[in-house]
From TrEMBL:
This is Oxidized purine nucleoside triphosphate hydrolase. GO terms for cellular component: cytoplasm. It comes from Parnassius mnemosyne (clouded apollo). GO terms for biological process: DNA protection. Its cofactor is Mg(2+).
Amino acid sequence: MFLKKIFTLIFIRQDNQILLGLKKRGFGQNKWNGFGGKVELNESVMEAAVRELREESCLMCKTTDLKNIGHLEFTFEGDSTMMDVRVFSSSIFEGTPTETEEMIPKWFDCDKIPFHAMWPDDSLWFPYMLQGKLFYGRFHYQGFDKILNYTIEELESM
Ligand code: 6U4
Ligand code: NA
Ligand code: NA
């Protein structure tokens, strides 16, 4: 049995670009990723997604403007915790991406995603996101660099 912890991950889109953040500390340090974190007790998953986006990039977004685009589950060899990550996107937001204690935000062209400096799973599921397909992926890691096995499927609805 796994102890599930729910996380959010949000991707802001504008024209043919996507906003990523370079994580400055903690889990996923020095990797480019979407913005997100743990869901707290007193909030919904979408409220957490909006809060983490604001805390990490200074952008503001409404829960009603979020699209639920994917679901990712991560397990790690020898660890009974499952990271259950709810993935969102939005092209409606306010503010200017600004560096915070946790992240350095930067716009990337969608055909120039820095996969070499991202979680190894990202290159496997980003194509679904970039093609507008809903996805469900499960990844089992050994350490934080090696995927031992995985499955990804396209979903009809979330
Ligand atoms: P604190 O303790 O406040 O720094 P918090 O911000 O709540 O933590 P954090 O940053 O540890 O949580 O959350 C991890 C973030 O990384 C979430 O947005 C989910 C995302 N994430 C985790 N594993 C990932 C993976 N393999 N691939 C990926 N994103 C991942 O693309
Ligand atoms: Na975070
Ligand atoms: Na956070």
